[in-house]
Amino acid sequence: FPIRLALVIQVCILAGILFVTIASPLAAQNNPDPRGSFLRSLVIPGWGHYYNDSENWTRGKIHFGADVVMIGAYFGLNARASNLEGQYETFAQLNAGVSLSGKSRRFQLALGQFNNLEEYNDFQLRSRNWDQLLADTEENRWHWKSDDAREEYSDLRETSDRARNQLPAIAGLMVVNRALSAISAYRRARNMTSGPHAVLLPA
Question: What is the pTM of this model?
């Protein structure tokens, strides 16, 4: 899911840049179009402010800088989570003798809580969790070399999960930043085109 979300964000940004660039110039020559300003800042926060006034777009720089930081954080966390996933999968293969390829999250959790498959299934039988039993097949069997190894695997997996769980929040903040930038740029453009006697709204 996070990888698909990252691709969607990239495609939307590129498509928006292409559309707005073709539709009108980078910065307004005289009176900026509020709608164009709004759309620009939806695509790239701060672009609408630059379009309105390329000499004075301080607020736009703040929105743009925040977006750069969040994009960097998003892809950095995604890369870290992917790297940790590779580490704990390799670690499990070497220290528990089991491949995690195609395994469910329930299996991965069980692997970090029990020393072997027999111990896990015995616990589920005693707890009468019949639907939680794992098939006793060769590909499902594992045996940790030590408790320390099992705990190290759990730490790696939990760290990866924490990094992955932050991605939706960062994506949400990116959306909020774009909305705030777009509204601010729209108001600024409307104020600039309303004439000297209009009541100005804060940008």
Answer: 0.75
In this structure, are residues 203 and 184 in contact, taking their beta carbons and an 8 Å threshold?
yes
**Contact present, 111 and 97 (Cβ < 8 Å):** no
Long-range contacts of 72-79 (CB under 8 A, 24+ apart): 73/170, 74/6, 74/9, 74/167, 74/170, 74/171, 74/174, 75/6, 77/163, 77/164, 77/166, 77/167, 77/170, 78/2, 78/3, 78/6, 78/163, 78/164, 78/167
Please name the residues in contact with 142: beta carbons below 8 A apart, sequence gap of 6 or more: 92, 96, 97, 98, 111, 116, 117
Cβ neighbours of 172 (radius 10 Å): 11
Length of the chain: 203
Give, as one character, the DSSP assignment of residue 131.
G
* 143 three-class SS: strand
Q: Report mean pLDDT in 10-residue bins for the chain, 203 residues.
A: 57 57 53 90 91 91 94 92 96 97 94 97 95 95 96 97 94 94 95 62 52
Q: In terms of Cα–Cα distance, which of 200, 120, 196, 111 is closest to 153? A: 111
150's CB contacts (< 8 A; 6+ apart) are 96, 111, 112, 115, 144
